[in-house]
Amino acid sequence: MKEHILSVGIDIGTSTTQLVFSRITIDNTASMASVPRIKIIDKEVIYKSDIYFTPLTSPTSINGKKVRKIMENEYRKANISPKDVGTGAVIITGETARKENAEEVLNILSGLAGDFVVATAGPSLEGIIAGKGANAAKISKEKSCVIANLDIGGGTTNIAIFKNGEVIDTACLDIGGRLIKLDKETLESIYIAPKIEKLAESMNLKIFEGEKMTLENLRKITSRMSKILEEVIGIRAMTPQLQLMLTGNDLRRDYDIDYVSFSGGVADCIYEKNVENFFKYGDIGIILGQSIKDSNIVKKKNILKAAETIRATVVGAGSHTTDISGSTITIDENVLPLKNIPILKLDEEEEKLPLNQLKERIANKVNWFRLENDKQQVALAIKGVKNISFDGVQELSKCIIDGMKGILHIKAPLIIIVEKDIAKVLGQTIKAYLPHNKDVVCIDSVTVENGDYVDIGKSIANGKVVPVVVKTLLFSHK
């Protein structure tokens, strides 16, 4: 009963904008006599768009109409209609995510995204997706090792550390190829990012917009940027400039990195040989790539060539954001798709509490999501018990309903996400105790954390499973 889902990935980055379409194949991998176990068995990129410079109306504003025209043209070239798309991601990344109208651009693109597409940004999520698109996650699992993928774009370097296929750490730095933009003919600087000005100042270099730049000074700056990358992965002593360039949390560095891979547009410049024109893109990307090529990262670490470089994020967005639920679920189809639902997760100790305390703990956590005088929809996530008794299911169901009572009046479904494979019986029991007009969505075999958001798509495989996208907007450092 193989079924195919068409997925789109759209990446609007600091330097470039692009799109890919992927075909995700699902199948029942269980034997005829077993409970169905539907899994994703294949992911294939079937179309890659041209790569465009991200259109801007000003240094702080994206030209949403031009971005949409680019996407509409690529849909036509691929001979794909938005209604054909089942899942995927639109991600505004790097410096572009900080533009003042980023949310507006996502809204402009929403009609092209089918019924079920993530629309989010965030350096941790971007780094993870790029690492998957670059194949770092897969190789770390195959080799049982730790791989650091550095996705170096126009505005940022997003780092994701993978161990045995799982993400264990992330960081983001304001290091990228278009943080200084130049006139290709005169070499006058058109744009210098504020942090780069501060970095240059710490090196006793004074640079300013409109100044004619020299290759020598630009090399000094990109060399310093590459040394900061050495600092962040632990092969050079830390300096105050590392903190300057970090956006958010630093890496923990309590693990050994076996391999390093590079993705992003600057990665192609690392591998480029016999460079004739350092300024053909009107930025410092090629010079930065050459500085990294000469750095201790390349000299002292085992380097793995990424499966994708400039396309890593968009390929990851199109192929690696989607998972599917377990095969024993309870859903009211009419409420799907659901988007951007925040997660309220109980930890294992809380789940062991007596039921009267557990319902109070759930009710207290529901209050975390209070919006002024009202409350918003949340999804309750629990690990659950694998071989739960009938009485246990009934008691847990009543406890959940009592704990979630504060938001049951909202015209939205009650959403439960369970790690263990008990969603069908739990969901049906909860539904039996609720008024007939209250919708329930109870899915399993999905792992989420507090701080995550989840999208749940329309059912596939004759209603047996639903596509799920877990969006980790903030990667917690434990």
UniProtKB/TrEMBL annotation:
Endpoints of the signal sequence: none
Keyword Lyase attached: yes
Keywords, sorted A to Z: Lyase
Organism this protein belongs to: Maledivibacter halophilus
Designated name of the protein: Reactivating factor of Adenosylcobalamin-dependent ethanolamine ammonia lyase
A GO term for molecular function: lyase activity
